[in-house]
Specification:
Shape: globular
Number of domains: 1
CATH topology: Rossmann fold
Radius of gyration: 16 Å
Distance between the termini: 23 Å
Largest sheet: 7 strands, mixed
Helix content: 25-40%
CATH architecture: 3-Layer(aba) Sandwich
Number of strands: 7
CATH class: Alpha Beta
CATH superfamily: Phosphoglycerate mutase-like
Strand content: 15-25%
Length: 197
Amino acid sequence: MDIYVIRHGQTDANLRHELQGRRDIPLNERGREQAQRVRALLDERGIFFDRVYSSPLGRAVETAQIVSGGSVPVETDDRLLEMDYGPYEGMNLRKPAPEVVTFFSDFVRNPAPDGMEQLSSVTARAGKFIEEVARSSGERVLVSTHAILMKGILEYLTPGSRGDYWSKFIGNCAVYQCVWRDGAFSVPVEVADAERG
């Protein structure tokens, strides 16, 4: 089984440099164009999907619909929701709270501020989801989600990363692929990016 994980396309909150979290903010036109660009890249490679999963938030669902070409229904799962930022949701990242700056400066050693979901929780629910998907039917599966949850999936699939993905930039509509064969996952690799092709 091939599993493709994508971050949703751009939203206006991305442009405003806000922590979107679980607010249901739609794609903007640029976000839709990014998703269409990824669909075109996958078309060129003959990649279509048997199963499509998404966070229930509209920006992820619409990204999944565009990238999958509407060929199969989108199945939503709450485990694919973005990290719960609690009281920090909507915060302007150009003027972050001091405790958020501390957290962002070293994700591995510094716990999330009070009221924010811990990264260990993100990785745990991401891992449970991806393990379940690996045992489902389908040769090619698309998973549409959010930046931090996507990093949680990548962390889970790369046990030796030691937290490297937490500080890695993952752009809107970046796509990673991993392979599930003989009861094991391959290390995920980036296979498409709406901006770079």
